[in-house]
Amino acid sequence: MKTKKLISVIVSAIVLGAHAKVFASNIHDYNRTNNDGKFNVYLRAVHIDTRIENGIIEDDFGGFPFGSRLGGTALGLVADYNSGYWQDSIGFDASLYGVAKIDARPENRDLFDDTSGESKGFAKLGQASLKLRHAGDNWSAALQAGRGRFDAGTVVTLDTRAVPGSLQGARGQIQVDGLDIGPLPGVLNIDGAYINRVSPRDREDFERILSKGGFEVDDIKTFSVTYDAKLFALKFAKGIAEDFNKNTNYGLTLRAPLGENSGAVFDTHYYDFRRGGSIWDRDWLDGNAGYDDKASWLNLNLGLKIDHWSFGLSYSKTRAELTNGQLGYAFFDHGENVDGLMDAWTRSGNDFNNDDEQTWQIAGKYEFDGKSIAGISLDGFNAMVLFKRGKFDATNPFSGVNTDIQESQAEYRLNYRFEEPDYQGLSVGMIYTRYWINEDFVALVSAQPNNVVNGKELRVYVDYAF
């Protein structure tokens, strides 16, 4: 499992949806406090407890340097001010983030900055941005400049720890309505962003963009074009990290309503990743690159919603050749401290994106809206279960034999957002994940060794929006 140093878990939930569209089911959503012209306070308590194991590392290398139990407990606060638009055209957003340490182990799972060798709380000005907008009869345009939470093109702002991350730069969006195809209402969306600094979710500083090897990247330029005609949608997105990499995403979504509360969706994404210049070459020479020159990730997904039930079936295929002696993988971020936008349904916890890996995933979700137990309403409560299995080849360094590898992941989620008037804004969630791989030696040959270690994790969130 993977973090900044070791082991990954759930950074995002798997897709399963509402009506004819499938979408990510999140416990946490920072936009719940994003109300124009209001000051909002959002409080989160998060607990992460991860156990890891690898027989070879434990028997032959004395175990993991930070122990086999990772995680911590933190209390996070987001205070958001989202102004209205003066003269319907100009406004200002600002956010203060604070994180208090309750408990932390040496590898604290990105809850706190531990680059200095100790975990600690922090506070920062997470957002401070000027915003502009203008609208015509069938179109609207918006611009945001400064520090903010940007989701644009091939870059995303994650909110999966105590507070979300932040990016510095500018983002622009244009929406054009009325581009209909017969009875289908067509909407065109164009967005783009320029980013030159980042502030990850576990620290207070706004810092330079860094490659996997720690080399500075000047900036990221990214954009996307989406056309949505309700029954189908097309997407193209491209991002360039200067002298580092170039990521491109092609997407197609087909939707079919099956009655008032049911529907089906077919969603496919093809990702093309390329080396982008001298910084990537330096990473490759230092053994930190994910692939030689190019990589790809194909993701095919079928979703079905029938009343309270949702089901998803996914397949993905990865190619990421690496000839420096390691097992390659599809690296979809634009830096070590920047999160790439990855809509692949099979990206949950461990990414299952090793070279030549084929992955199948099945997931199911049930929403309890309208149900009750002993007179207590279960509106806002849902449960989800996911199982994923991937297969690829790797060479055993002890025997020199090419070996069939099988990795698996099971994930269980419970979510409850209170709808009662006295508790509105309160939500609780639990995620339990188990990951296992059939050969321990993979961690010794993989270019992402921290993503192929057996482990179990319990994650608990309590969110409250005042």
From TrEMBL:
Record's Gene3D superfamilies?
Answer: Porin
The superkingdom of the source organism is: Bacteria
GO molecular-function annotation terms?
Answer: porin activity
Tell me which InterPro entries the record gives: OM_porin_bac, Porin_dom_sf
One Pfam entry for this protein is OprD
User: Has keyword Transport?
Assistant: yes
Assigned keywords, A-Z: Signal, Transport
Q: What is this protein called?
A: Outer membrane porin, OprD family
Task: Name its species.
Answer: Stutzerimonas stutzeri
